[in-house]
Amino acid sequence: MDIGNVIVTKRKELKLTQQDLADRLHVSFQAVSKWENGFSCPEIELLPLIADVLHISVDALLGYEFKTHGYYDDRYKKDEYFWGLQPNETCYEIMKIMPPVKPLKVLDIGCGEGKDAVFFAKNGYQVTAFDLSLDGIEKGKRLAEKTGVEVNFFQADLNDYRLKENYDIIFLSGVFDYMKPDLRVSLIEHLKEHTNKNGINAIKVFVDKPFIEVSDKKKKSYRYPWKSGEILTYYHDWIMYDIDEVIYDCNSGGVPHKHCIDIMVSVKPEKE
Ligand SMILES: C[S@@+](CC[C@H](N)C(=O)[O-])C[C@H]1O[C@@H](n2cnc3c(N)ncnc32)[C@H](O)[C@@H]1O
User: Fold this and answer.
1) Distance in Å, CA 84 to ligand 1 centroid
2) What digits encode the pLDDT tens for the residues 160-207?
3) Looking at domain 71-267, which of 3.30.450.20, 3.50.30.50, 2.40.10.220, 3.40.50.150 is its CATH number?
4) Calpha distance 205→231 (Å, rounded)
5) What pLDDT was estimated at residue 222?
6) How far does residue 109's CA lie from ligand 1's centre (Å)?
7) Does residue 178 line the site of ligand 1, with CB under 6 A?
8) Cβ of residue 76 lying under 6 Å from some atom of ligand 1
9) In CATH, what number does 3-61 get?
10) Which of ligand 1's atoms lies nearest the C-alpha of 179?
């Protein structure tokens, strides 16, 4: 996509008019119109501000294509829901800690086909959800429509996307091992900063164990394995509500194997 297309697509996703965008960038709406129609390009020094207003990186603004994993796209293209429709058990735990007695904002990162995001929305939370796979996002949108709930679904790369608002609950299930290791410190700090006081970060992360063999397919994928217990170290200054490590059997791909997952639910303290 060229820059004009990126601007118009993102502007519409954010429900901004050309005038809204122009006002935020301190330019005329004619300038925005020219960019979007390919008659001119924004000045180079405006790029960081445009990227900021559109909630994307400068890379993405310049048309950087999402590099998806194929692995999930292929599975999500099928009609049936690869992960089923039953919500993750951790969603129930989150509901117990923060029941939706007032409007609460949830962010589901790496939401897959949207089953958990739709579950939260059905229970009265205001939900935003993104995933790298457009096929997953489209399925999430269809599920939300069928269920009669609203979820703000969009495609984004966890490694690239920066939050612009705070959330009460940030939920990540099975996606953290796609985060580039050199981003771990800064990205987790970013998620913590964008969590409201007394809010929750609930994280399920696959970890490697020396006695569990990693399949060749996984070795070749874009996975960056975590060490057992490592996630806790990033949240040492929060209240640990629940910590668990589970080894389970899996048959995906038709080959029986095992996974190990760390589950952490932690609460941001009132006073830091
Ligand atoms: C193991 S699945 C978990 C899906 C869902 N959270 C669930 O628990 O059912 C991992 C998900 O992470 C998504 N993903 C992988 N890399 C990502 C990235 N860099 N940014 C955002 N999502 C990503 C995949 O497309 C996939 O949907």
Assistant:
1) 14
2) 888 889 999 999 999 999 998 999 999 999 999 999 999 999 999 999
3) 3.40.50.150
4) 8
5) 64
6) 7
7) yes
8) no
9) 1.10.260.40
10) 19
| pLDDT in the model for residue 201 | 98
**CA torsion sign, 134 to 140 to 146 to 149?**
negative
The token pair that represents 253 in the structure block? 């791909």
- Give per-residue pLDDT as tens, 29-44: 999 999 999 999 999 9
- Given a cut of 70, whether residue 101 has pLDDT beyond it is yes
Ligand 1 neighbour 112 (Cβ under 6 A): yes
Positive or negative, the CA dihedral 54, 57, 62, 67 is negative
Task: Determine if ligand 1 sits within 6 Å of the CB of residue 171.
Answer: no
Cα 212 to averaged position of ligand 1 atoms, centre (Å): 22
CATH 1.10.260.40 range(s) for the chain read 3-61
* Cβ atoms within 10 Å of 100's Cβ, excluding its own: 15
Q: How confident is the model at residue 217 (pLDDT cuts 50, 70, 90)?
A: low
**What is the mean predicted confidence (pLDDT) over 250-254?**
76
Does residue 132's CB lie within 6 angstroms of at least one atom of ligand 1? yes
Phi, psi of 268 (to 5 degrees): -75, 125
236 alpha carbon to ligand 1 midpoint, in Å?
A: 25
**Distance, C-alpha 223 to centroid of its chain:** 16
